[in-house]
Amino acid sequence: MLLNSIKEIKSEIKNWRVKGLKIALVPTMGALHEGHLSLIKKAKTECDKVVVSVFVNPIQFGPSEDFEKYPRTLEADLKLCDNEGVDIVFAPNAIEMYGKNKLSNDTLTYVCPPYFYADKLCGKSRIGHFDGVCTVVMKLFNIIQPDYAYFGQKDAQQVLIIKKMVEDLNIPIEIIQCPIIREHSGLALSSRNKYLSEDGKKNALVLSQILNNIKGCYKKGITDIQALKETAYSYLTEKHDLEYLEILNKNTLEEDKNANINSIILIAFRIDGVRLIDNLYIED
Ligand code: PAF
Q: 3-state class of 108 per DSSP?
């Protein structure tokens, strides 16, 4: 069932609550792919009812980012959700979500995660991005009041920040992190892969190659973070505009002296102007 209004979805969910049903939320910006479907499938096996939200959230995009051109494929998304047995697709518009407020923190209440987590990695180039993410996720949590919410590890920083928000604000929702889904080639699935040319797609494989190479070097005994990072440079060509390559603690995003069992390797680069991110636990 497709619902666009907060009032309608709240009343539908009230009926589920009365019956004591376990409710899952899978928040998305649409353009659904196998990565999203893996979250939905897991939610289906663990909960009685599954809500998928489809909302391209304007306040998490910077002024020069791809909000306007972000892929919007609602018809196809609805078919995929239908095939997976999703109970409700919640697809509000921006006025439904934010009213007629000017979309800035001059007039709208934002949920702002701690700088320590939000200002590094993606947050360094995407100023205010995680304020926008936390604000919309908090609103979705309040509207739907799920028992569980499902997020992909591909946005590892996002999941960590949302878990922190849930803990710090005592939100009674369990966050479930699901593994990255990759093409056979190793490329992590992303709605933004749609922007890539054939050539761009080939160059994008360097993302997962770098991650696997660093993991391989670690397994051979190299733990010095600088030395591990340096192994990446031979993969990069003038086509790859590296934004960051970091090896951090997966639970705290702190820098350790040496890579260890808790390390996560995170990378972001642009190819032909398309920004791609990926990550890998150094040990699974
Ligand atoms: O990961 C995403 O697609 C978005 O950041 C989210 C969590 C749906 C919030 O808009």
A: coil
Structure tokens at 136: 């919309």
Q: Nearest Cα to 23, choosing from 44, 3, 37, 2?
A: 44
Query: Is the Cβ–Cβ distance between 97 and 4 less than 8 Å?
Result: no
- What confidence category does residue 185 fall into, taking pLDDT thresholds of 50, 70 and 90? very high
Measured between alpha carbons, how far apart are the two ends of the chain, in Å? 38
* Three-state secondary structure call for residue 219: helix
Residue written as tokens 């000017």?
102
pLDDT tens-digit series, residues 223-251: 999 999 999 999 999 999 999 999 999 99
For residues 115 and 142, the answer to whether their CB atoms sit within 8 Å is: no
Model confidence, pTM = 0.97
- pLDDT bin (cut points 50, 70, 90) of residue 34 is very high
In terms of Cα–Cα distance, which of 58, 52, 125 is closest to 84? 52
pLDDT greater than 80 at residue 104: no
Among the options 33, 36, 129, 184, which is catalytic?
36
**Residue 137 beta carbon below 6 angstroms from any ligand 1 atom:** yes
For residue 284, give both structure tokens.
């699974």
* Residue 39 beta carbon below 6 angstroms from any ligand 1 atom: no
Q: Are strands 241-249 and 263-271 parallel, antiparallel or unpaired?
A: antiparallel
The H or E element that residue 175 is part of is: strand 174-178
Q: Is 240 a catalytic site residue?
A: no
Is the CB of 27 inside a 6 Å radius of any atom of ligand 1? yes
